[in-house]
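Sequence design from tokenized structure. All designs in this work follow the same two-part layout: the structure record, then the generated sequence. An example of the structure record is given first.
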């Protein structure tokens, strides 16, 4: 596995800045990979194909997790669940083993106590999060993550057209309407979709 400094350099370049969230995300992913015995998914294809990662927050840490793991949304190896938590679950799809790593809230006050000489909590956290041992930063939990085959990277399915909007639907994400028509999820639940068409 590459060094923390190497990953942080890559994370800063990809994300546009370095912050406490980036440091946590890199450390979180490094720990998850270590627990699974996956060495370097960013550069080893055989390691990359073994890994699926679920992230629980859409913040800086998620970009850092993606840098370390090589998991990308477009490769279907990065999954987002909007729980608003600084946590991620790393899954070895070959063995079925999965570990969930979550940042401890106590790490923030630890950072403040470690570096009172630094102005601002971000500066304190950025430095402390590089220095603190894993057990002070994270909780670890072995978990089971059932993943439907259609969620897996490389899954193929027939492309189906929505009877209402005419848009194509991939990966078996269609639903049947009350009248038996094949619909996309947006048309099937138009009141709850994330966008509303302008008339």
């Amino acid at each position: 596995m590459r060094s923390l400094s190497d990953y942080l350099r890559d994370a800063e370049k990809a994300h546009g800045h370095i912050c406490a969230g980036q440091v946590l995300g890199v450390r979180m992913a490094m720990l998850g990979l270590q627990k699974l015995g996956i060495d370097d998914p960013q550069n080893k294809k055989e390691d990359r194909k073994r890994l699926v990662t679920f992230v629980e927050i859409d913040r800086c840490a998620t970009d850092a997790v993606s840098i370390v793991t090589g998991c990308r949304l477009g490769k279907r190896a990065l999954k987002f669940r909007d729980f608003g938590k600084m946590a991620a679950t790393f899954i070895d799809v070959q063995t079925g083993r999965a570990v969930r790593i979550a940042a401890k809230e106590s790490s923030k006050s630890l950072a403040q106590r470690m570096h009172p000489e630094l102005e601002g909590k971000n500066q304190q956290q950025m430095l402390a999060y590089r220095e603190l041992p894993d057990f002070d930063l994270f909780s670890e939990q072995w978990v089971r993550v059932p993943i439907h085959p259609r969620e897996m990277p490389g899954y193929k399915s027939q492309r189906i057209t929505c009877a209402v909007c005419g848009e194509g639907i991939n990966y078996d994400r269609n639903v049947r309407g009350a009248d038996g028509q094949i619909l996309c999820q947006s048309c099937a639940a138009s009141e709850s979709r994330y966008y509303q068409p302008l008339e």
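The domain at 157-199 is CATH 3.30.60 (Wheat Germ Agglutinin (Isolectin 2); domain 1). We note this feature because it recurs in several other targets discussed in the main text.
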